[in-house]
Structures are given as C-alpha cells and as structure tokens.
Amino acid sequence: MYQQRTIVVGAGIIGLSTAYHLLQQGMQQVTVLEQATVDHNLASSHGISRLLRFEYGNDSFYSEMVRLSQKRWKQLEQRTQQHLYTPTGILSFGNDQEENFTRQSYYTIRKLGHSPERLTSRSCAQRFPQFNTQGFDFLSYNLDAGMLHASTCLHTLRACIRDMGGTILEHHQVTAIEHADSQRPICLKIANGERVEAEQVVVAAGPWIHRLLGEELELPVRLTRQYLLYFANLPIEDFGLYAFPAFMADDLYGFPMHKQSPDGPALLKAASHSFGAPAEPGEVPPIDDLVVKQAVRRLYTLLPALRNARLDRIESYIYDVSQDENFILDYLPDDPRIVIGTGFTGHAFKFGILLGEMLSSLVRREESVVPLTRFQLSRFAHQWQEPTHSVA
C-alpha cells in the first residue's frame, strides 16, 4: 500500500483538468487513476472535436463561463504550443414565434460584448447556400465560436500533468471508495487488487459515477445513449473549414468537415442533442436504426447535399444528465475530503479546463473563480436520497 495526497478518479477532460490545476497551484503528489487509457473509445471525452459556442438562450451565466473557459484554452495553447482550437463561427437557426432560444442567445451575447450578425433568409442563402432556411425566421451568425480538438486537448493535459510531476495510472479501475473513518486516509480499491490511500479524492468518473457512489448516494443523474453521425463524399470547398460554419438548428448541431485522424478523410460531423434512451456505462449496444434515421432525415432537410453523401460512420456515447441539466460540483455529503463532478449533459467539454479549476478550488478550500451555488447538491435536497453512510 502506498499513499498519495490527492487522487483524481477518471482521466477524461474533467479529471485531467482538475489534476492540471491542482499541480499548477502548487500541490504535489497528485495522481490520476484511469480504468482504461486516456482518450479510450468508451470515454465521454473521446473524439476528435467538440463545439465551443456562447449561445445559451438568456442564460448569461453559462455564456460568461464560456468566455472564461475560452481564455484558459488559449492560455494552454500558448503554454504548450499545441493547436487546441480552430475558429469556425456558428450559424444558429430559430423560430421567432415558436421558440426563443436563438433570439435570446443573440441578444444575450450582444450584451456580453459579442457581435453576432442577424441574417435574413436571403443573406444566409448568399453566404451559406448549403443550408435550407425554410421553416426558420430568426438566423444569427456568431464568429466567436469554434472547434476544440478534443483528443489533442486530452493528450496535451496528460503531458502537462506529467511534466509538472503528477502521476497518471492507466488500467487502474477503482471499484470502491472506503472513507467511513474520517481519522484514517481514504482507501480506494483497485480492480487488480491494489489498495491506494489518499487524503483527498476527486471523483470525475463520467457515466461510471453510479458504480462508485451509487450504494452510498443516489445521485440525481441519468445516463442516456447518444449518437454522432459522420458524412463523407462532400465537396471540401463547400463544407470545409472557413466555407462552412458550425451550426445549431433546434436540437441538431454539426461541424465543418475535418479529419478524424491524421491519415483519414475529412468528414462532416453532426448529431442531435435530444436525450436518448437509458444507457449503461461500458456497454456497446446495437445502433438504434430508428433514432439514427430520424436524425438523418432532419439533417437532409437542413442540408440537402447530405442526400448525396455517404453516412460513413456512427459513434455512440453517453450523456450523464442531472435533473435540472446543470453540472454537479460539490463535496460528498458528510465527507468534504471527497469532491464529485458529474451531470455534464454533453456540453461540458468546452468548459472542461474551467471546471477543473473550479473542482480544484473545492479541494483546496478556496473561493472559486465562478460561484458554485448553482452546482451544489443541496438544490436537489427534496428529490434525492442519501443512504446510510457505510464502508463501501
């Protein structure tokens, strides 16, 4: 048995960012335990790209968090000389009468100092003829949006953690966390039989959080199955970077064509943000053809050229969704030595570098750069149950 001062469970974007900030703030003996490998195929953070956008309806709180996060991504780029972010702009489609999200986003981010453009159907057709605007009467284009290169972000953070003296142990699956005696170190059981002790623990295990804390705390978080769709055989001059923007239309969103691997073809990536069927972490169920066909049909309407493209690949992944769709960043009830981060709902990656800083502030008992009240477990006090505290 060996001791570490702080252990982070999970090497996704949240766990790696937390370890990075802890080390950057001077903490030592920081270890990340990952059940598989960094950027493994079943991880929520896995993949080549994630959207960074400021549009959150009238919720300026999240829009301001995006600004803080984008600043930190740029600082990490400068520090490491790695290309982590590519500007794409974002084209948003809304209905002025039926839904307010697009219009609210437009006016909210203008108040925050951004300069989104209001487009007419005609001006949109001139600039972005790839889109069918029929059915939408509020169109906006915001240059202040882009694409985070997700896998590169993960591997860059891993390198930084190691350079700063942190440890990342892959293939170390935590199966239980024992912490009943507050006078003794927290003990983490590893699937290979090891037992690791720590003074503080951050649990950022993505969809696996219920398997670690489910018997002890019934977290108000559900898991849903989602799909990413990749289209090939599109003209790069029409759908590539700087010709085609990222987009949002109702629950649909997508990216310009970009390569999924250094030697692979450039593909257009799109998906629906609507919450899917219940899911279990680690499982690889058959693709739900009906769900995919419904999304593809709607994408054909929005982007008619996709009818002549090939659906090259379908990836499935999992959202961990809190009841109010806000993040959960808090101490484990009755044991402030354990910090939990969950409920990331498929929109956390853009905030990842900032969320890690916020979780590190909980570990260090310092004031967070973003107020944490909105993310506390106590907001669910009348909805969730806390089982009797016991040794796991």
Can you summarize this structure?
Pfam families: DAO (PF01266). With 392 residues, the chain is of the alpha+beta class.
Radius of gyration: 21 Å
| CATH homologous superfamily placement of the largest domain | FAD/NAD(P)-binding domain
The CATH architecture designation of the largest domain is 3-Layer(bba) Sandwich
Helix content: 25-40%
What oligomeric assembly is this protein in? single chain
Largest sheet geometry:
9 strands, mixed
* Arithmetic mean pLDDT: 93
Count of beta strands: 20
Instruction: List segments where confidence is low: pLDDT < 50 over at least 5 consecutive residues.
Output: 386-392
Instruction: Give the overall silhouette.
Output: globular
The computed structural class is alpha+beta
CATH topology of the largest domain: FAD/NAD(P)-binding domain
Number of domains: 2
Name the beta content range.
25-35%
